[in-house]
Design a protein that fits this description.
With 116 residues, the chain is mostly helical.
Length: 116
């Protein structure tokens, strides 16, 4: 394997792992997921659908690793995940919620208001 192939494999596996973890958090109704979705105005009823999209994207990425004929599926899955996260970013921008954009489980709480 070349360096580029190893990098592609590592990035694909890392992306798949993160998306499965986030999908599980969505399905389990993790506290940070519920707080984040409430802040940006996403109804709780969206969470199972968002989890399904993340899992479908992950499945496409992983399947494309096994057969070169499935590489277009992996490209479509990656594109779908990019669109999913661009939509999430748009929801954050619309709601003006920026404090948890990096990763909701690893960010600090929003800054407290300053008193005059």
């Amino acid at each position: 394997m070349t360096g580029i192939q190893i990098t592609l494999l590592v990035v694909t596996l890392l992306t798949a792992t993160i998306n499965v973890g986030m999908a599980v958090a969505d399905l389990a109704g993790a506290r940070f997921v519920l707080a984040n979705s409430a802040e940006v105005g996403a109804p709780r009823s969206w969470l199972p659908r968002l989890a399904a999209l993340k899992l479908a994207g992950t499945a496409g990425l992983l399947l494309s690793l096994f057969d070169t004929a499935l590489r277009p599926l992996g490209a479509a899955a990656a594109s779908g995940l990019v669109l999913l996260y661009l939509g999430a970013l748009a929801c954050h921008v619309r709601a003006r919620v920026f404090h948890n954009l990096a990763f909701p489980g690893f960010t600090s709480p929003p800054p407290s208001p300053r008193w005059p």
